[in-house]
Amino acid sequence: MSTDSRSLQDRELRVGMVGYAFMGAAHSTAWRTVNVAFDLPARARMALICGRDESKVAGAAAKLGWDAHTTDWRELVERDDIDIVDVCTPGDSHAEIAIAALAAGKHVLCEKPLANSVDEARAMVAAAAKAQAEGIRSMCGFNYRRVPAVAMMRQLIASGRIGVIRHVRAVYLQDWIVDPQFPLVWRLQKDKAGSGALGDIGAHIIDLTQYVTGQKITGVSALTETFVKERPLPSESSGLAASSGNGADAPATGQVTVDDAALFLARLDGGAIATYEASRFAIGRKNGLRVEINGSLGTLVFDLERLNELEFYDSAAPTSEQGFNRILITEADHPYMAAWWPPGHIIGYEHSFTHEMRDFVEAIANGTDPAPSFVDALQVQLVLDAVARSADQGTVWTEVEPALAEVAA
Amino acid sequence: MSTDSRSLQDRELRVGMVGYAFMGAAHSTAWRTVNVAFDLPARARMALICGRDESKVAGAAAKLGWDAHTTDWRELVERDDIDIVDVCTPGDSHAEIAIAALAAGKHVLCEKPLANSVDEARAMVAAAAKAQAEGIRSMCGFNYRRVPAVAMMRQLIASGRIGVIRHVRAVYLQDWIVDPQFPLVWRLQKDKAGSGALGDIGAHIIDLTQYVTGQKITGVSALTETFVKERPLPSESSGLAASSGNGADAPATGQVTVDDAALFLARLDGGAIATYEASRFAIGRKNGLRVEINGSLGTLVFDLERLNELEFYDSAAPTSEQGFNRILITEADHPYMAAWWPPGHIIGYEHSFTHEMRDFVEAIANGTDPAPSFVDALQVQLVLDAVARSADQGTVWTEVEPALAEVAA
Amino acid sequence: MSTDSRSLQDRELRVGMVGYAFMGAAHSTAWRTVNVAFDLPARARMALICGRDESKVAGAAAKLGWDAHTTDWRELVERDDIDIVDVCTPGDSHAEIAIAALAAGKHVLCEKPLANSVDEARAMVAAAAKAQAEGIRSMCGFNYRRVPAVAMMRQLIASGRIGVIRHVRAVYLQDWIVDPQFPLVWRLQKDKAGSGALGDIGAHIIDLTQYVTGQKITGVSALTETFVKERPLPSESSGLAASSGNGADAPATGQVTVDDAALFLARLDGGAIATYEASRFAIGRKNGLRVEINGSLGTLVFDLERLNELEFYDSAAPTSEQGFNRILITEADHPYMAAWWPPGHIIGYEHSFTHEMRDFVEAIANGTDPAPSFVDALQVQLVLDAVARSADQGTVWTEVEPALAEVAA
Amino acid sequence: MSTDSRSLQDRELRVGMVGYAFMGAAHSTAWRTVNVAFDLPARARMALICGRDESKVAGAAAKLGWDAHTTDWRELVERDDIDIVDVCTPGDSHAEIAIAALAAGKHVLCEKPLANSVDEARAMVAAAAKAQAEGIRSMCGFNYRRVPAVAMMRQLIASGRIGVIRHVRAVYLQDWIVDPQFPLVWRLQKDKAGSGALGDIGAHIIDLTQYVTGQKITGVSALTETFVKERPLPSESSGLAASSGNGADAPATGQVTVDDAALFLARLDGGAIATYEASRFAIGRKNGLRVEINGSLGTLVFDLERLNELEFYDSAAPTSEQGFNRILITEADHPYMAAWWPPGHIIGYEHSFTHEMRDFVEAIANGTDPAPSFVDALQVQLVLDAVARSADQGTVWTEVEPALAEVAA
């Protein structure tokens, strides 16, 4: 009897989550809320949380509301009473955990970016494909697809409302490492994080723009920069917050091995041309993901710091009345919003994860494949890889390798 | 042994909530989240929910996560194992339930407006005062005080940053009954709701502006209007959503007995002059609470539809650099925000309730009186009363009765 | 032979302007530009400027581009070769100059407010009516009617696009006298200015809202305040800029005899209810005229500090696409804009005067009556008068006297 | 006797302008206004306008206020009574006219881009250098430097307020040729215009960002696109407006030989990295020049459609009060603004030209070299050239040739 059919019998899907830092907290909020906010065909249960530090993970379990905890992700992956494995660790362990979980017949939700390298991502795609044949589902956690305004963009574009897409203009700007004394946390180390702004936040705008436009990036020309090349070693760090060691002596320092910022031009397979920029040095921009899409008939603009709003310029209106229409995406007929409050009562960042869990649970219960699939996530990885290669080779134009052929191989 | 000391022993406060519609859902979300988001001296437990319809309240209990349910609020109020009674019913039953709960030694959180009349509010204040002598806490649920940007406004004003307050400009605009076919729900009936836009949303801007300025309204000149005087009777209604009956015949209609909009001028006891407007006919404004405070040294602007932002004009800056500074209220040193996400990751409407529950739980655990007290809420009621009397008497200037003298009496 | 027919013969209208301060400079810019920007049936010629101080008015004539100057307004009014008298003096001399000019057969453009009192305004209306019988035109200079976005509001409302008007919400906020050391310029003296914020900027929002809605204010309830009651006497002042005397001794001070702020509620004859506020103490608001009109079908919002934009919420759009549409009013099919630059190239404050002169010249040349007429301006004066009386009498509801009956009398 | 000393004697500078379309109209407005708005050491006189079509240029002279007209630019350049030659023609004639004017001892103001090719620009620089030795001034008309908010950006950056510059982010977006039926006007023909969006609007953001940052672009990686490759031939065209021929037959069409959009990444010589985008296909963006500069200490944002505003994020403020400060650039202590209206009374697009003329006249009268010089403009041309070469060669990284070495050579 497959895990899936069991969970459908008793209408409960038991989740085991690996990791309890920033993403772990966000996912926990979502797992706790999803059954309440939505009428789901199966109920998610926060069964087991895993982390390396016993006392910390015990505290996280109590605080975040998990039934039990463990320090051994292999135990979590193999336990019979776990249906879903939710991977919230840094990128360097995604592949190992996800592949083991899939092999153990668990549905897998893996945080983005899918992996730290294309090779790892390919291995994960292969594992997912094999598991899929037995009804096991896998999904990568690009949560911004589930922001209602973003889902609405996709609907408007898919229905032809802005016509043929000409321009994509996407930035994801933050400023949390502008201070040169900010310590060398794992996100600034290539072996842990794979890359810097590029994979952390650049991956989001790659996925988001491809998702809403329905077009794939085919080639890029890229430039990356590390403005602060050496930083104090952290005394301890977790999530996005950290402090540098404060002994009597000057703190030991280490090399920053990832990019602070990544910029690239791109062509998309539907004929659009694009600019992308990811930076952690754009002072004042806290979570500044901003996307503008210009089509032959209209324009859409989204800003994550005002995620309840969508701007739509519609050239179908009379000339004298055309303008940027600020739509407050809080109506019951907007994507996901019937679950929440009356119009004008806004939602926050964390709701995107709740929507993600809803879609994942529904796909599992309904026996369909959720999106973004591991193949979709591999394709993002291939774009990241092309960007990194272009930047390494003096901004040379670099084609993005096709993801699907890899799967076929 | 008082309820309070018992709850402090076992560190659990058992909540019984009456009502399960819009406010019931919002409060449930907050009770479910407050223990996770904050490190509280006592843990809130969602023990019991009460509603009149057995099957509906059973469904609500399951859906919203309450341990048990009942259809008898008197049972809830009197049960030994309930520490907090949370009153989320329409205004016409606030007084009866709250007074009974206080008499039974329960801490009471009562939704705003406190009551449908000044007399009821006075009785509640008297009951709260009597209970307070035995360590029982009471609070009225003006949740917008707990929006971080609003709390920040109060801090800036209290620390003198905008100087002597000259002007208060407050509107709360909605549009959900613009359609004349929208049915005659309880919020449009004076016997249930007490008043219309005035008590429902006008009460919020009265409390909010008095809270942030630290000034009380002393007199008003008011004008109210009911634009649509007759509406179809509802087939069934709950919360803010409703549909009119759709039999083969024209639906029966009824008289709208509350205001659609209320406007008033006011003077505050610190010398400020003010305009207030509450309306359900401001098309396009969904939850449009907007407040601007002009002081002798600066200005603050808040808009609930963008509740993560606060605008601050500071005349202490050099002339050529003065401007409206849009502060994104998502930093860890902003009120309540250390509990949530990294900077720039916004929160939503529901978080104001989570903050409210935190403050209430902390006050109970710490043995302090939470605000807004029932006296504070009575004072808002007295303003509402003055507004209604002014409007009834041809917009004549009407002094607001003092709330404290009433308590003393 | 009437002045009018003469001017049509030689296609030139010779303007004599009285006053050369702020409004004088603005009108000069407009007279200098109007022939270039528009194809007019007659050419305006800047013939003569008048001021009391010989050397200053000579300098103004040279600087602003007037052919000649005089210190005697009576000479200007009576000269045969003047077709238009443009009255830009403080309000206390409007009536005398305008009536004399009309009697002398000159077309008269008079700055707002029309006069400092209703009696003066009535006399001016009578003079205008008499002159009109002989083809002499008169107009009051409410220049904001000529802001393209404002003209567009009127068109949209007149064509029914926002339905039945429910709410008018108008503020005109400035902050130039917040500093208590700002001197006692003429605008702060009742005998010169008639009133303070009320007549200076309140008059604008009264006229503007009545113009765009097509409704008249029928009654008001008002409250005024003078926050700073005594100020240093000015050493010298002109326009809006001034400095207080700076002798070795403390400057002599004088009483502020006008309102710093005026607030009022109103009813309009089409059923709308309204709030109005004019203040010179709203720190940070430099020229903050903001108007919002809510109708049964839509909302319009205008902000003078962003005068090239108009926000339009149109409930005719599908629910999920309704929003506040920011229309950039720079298209050739927007009012007045064909005269200017390509789309997106914005215009400024002064253009409103150029448009005003265009409309006035066209009316004269075409033999039609321009608007706002002196009757329209008297009606604004009657609203100002009702506001002042209401404020004087404890905010009592005060009906606005009808203007037309006065004319008939 | 040099022209310059003559003009200083009689305090009049006689201007001859070549071209009377869009830029001709804008420059005429500025020449007409500059003497009035500013107290200049010499008075500009609109002496002579030149255009190829006799009747049209005669009409333009009358309409725009020029003393005389001619159809022969050589006559204009050589006339003794002309001090300044203002070149407003399409780019293909800039070099010939400007060089002839400089040779004839005239001060030259040349519209941007300086030329259609680097070779022409070099020849112009050489001519300007030679003329400079005799006190003849030359300037290129990048008018957006004279927008007060832009000048203010430069001041803030120069005084270190935003620290070390990390990022430049510049777009100039328009949409006037989105319609494939828009005809093939001169701006879409390479032989007339040199390039498309790149030289027309891309040149503006190159100059503006280099000006405000004080850094030069050293290398680029670029991508250009022509979305609509064939268009109807125009029946007649002028400025930005045009109509396609409307004979009974389908209109003849022609090849679009310029770019519709140009995107590029860049490095600046102070260490900043940058993205640039110029497009005429960004629907809804009418004159959408938007620039954001992130430094180590702050951020500045400018948007030409709201040119009276500047956003400044200043990390020197306390953390909890940091935000994007919207400064209304209308105070007397803002650049150029003392000439205009009281605070909050905004200016428009055309004022940038008036400021340009002021700076040019002052430089001539004071005997100093105005900026941007022809060398500055050549450097912009070299960036444009590098962009075009990069795009032609598959987005290869392309170094910008140094301009100064060219001058030295």
TrEMBL record, chains A, B, C, D:
Transit peptide in keyword set: no
Keyword Repeat: no
Keywords, comma-separated and alphabetical: Oxidoreductase
Pfam families: GFO_IDH_MocA (PF01408), GFO_IDH_MocA_C3 (PF22725)
Residue span, GFO/IDH/MocA-like oxidoreductase domain: 151-300
Start and end residues of each Gfo/Idh/MocA-like oxidoreductase N-terminal domain: 13-132
PANTHER family xrefs: BCDNA.GH03377
Name of the protein this chain belongs to: Oxidoreductase
